[in-house]
Amino acid sequence: MLVLLAFIIVFHITSAALLFIATIDNAWWVGEEFFADVWRVCVNNTNCTEIDASYKDYSTVQAVQATMILSTILCCIAFLIFVLQLFRLKQGERFVLTSIIQLMSCLCVMIAASIYTDRREDIHKNNAQLYSLTVDGRYGYSFILAWVAFAFTFISGLMYLILRKRK
């Protein structure tokens, strides 16, 4: 049982780390001359511009920012509640509250990545016009990590739902 508990804790911490990296790092959309995320756009690794209210599609970017931050916060809260429930729940009870919060985190990261996938072209047209760049590029590793974090938080949420406290 101790090995299972250690695996669950490591899995949850890995999920949180993936969410932090995907939220913070600047590699959601990369091209030959630029890389961009939901916070800023960098051209030639030197000219970085923050995305602010003057940005054309700012409300879409803001929705992605908010849901990624919320997902990261919910994942951390779920871990803290899991640790509290580990010592407070009676033997044989399930970690339902932890599971619900972790699945909400999963939903938030899915919403953020889905919005970005759907609106990516609109978001980066503004960049192309500002810097005389092509919109051509590819999804960066932060975007891929967001989808991996979605899978990890979903599996983690299901594990908590199924998990019972045993001796």
Structure, described:
The chain has 167 residues and is an alpha+beta fold. It has a single domain, classed as Up-down Bundle (Butyryl-CoA Dehydrogenase, subunit A, domain 3), CATH 1.20.140.150. Helices cover 67% and strands 9% of the residues. It has 4 helices and 5 strands. It has helices spanning 2-24, 58-88, 96-131, 141-162; strands at residues 29-30, 34-36, 40-43, 47-50, 138-139. A 5-stranded antiparallel beta sheet has the order 4-3-2-1-5. Strand 3 (40-43) and strand 4 (47-50) form a beta hairpin. Helix 1 runs antiparallel to helix 4. The longest helix is centred in the C-terminal third of the chain and has 36 residues, at 96-131. The mean pLDDT is 85.
Which descriptors would you attach to this protein?
Butyryl-CoA Dehydrogenase, subunit A, domain 3, integrin binding, 4 helices, Epithelial membrane protein 2, PMP22/EMP/MP20/Claudin, alpha+beta, 167 residues, elongated, transmembrane helix, five-stranded antiparallel sheet, golgi apparatus
Shape: elongated
CATH class: Mainly Alpha
Structural class by secondary-structure content: alpha+beta
Whole-number count of domains: 1
Number of helices: 4
The N- to C-terminal Cα distance equals: 7 Å
The ordered H/E elements are HEEEEHHEH
Record field, number of beta strands: 5
Instruction: Give average pLDDT, whole number.
Output: 85
* Largest beta-sheet characterization: 5 strands, antiparallel
The percentage helix is 55-70%
Q: In CATH terms, what is the architecture?
A: Up-down Bundle
Strand order, sheet with most strands = 4-3-2-1-5
CATH topology: Butyryl-CoA Dehydrogenase, subunit A, domain 3
Beta-strand portion reads: 5-15%
Radius of gyration: 19 Å
- Low-confidence regions: none
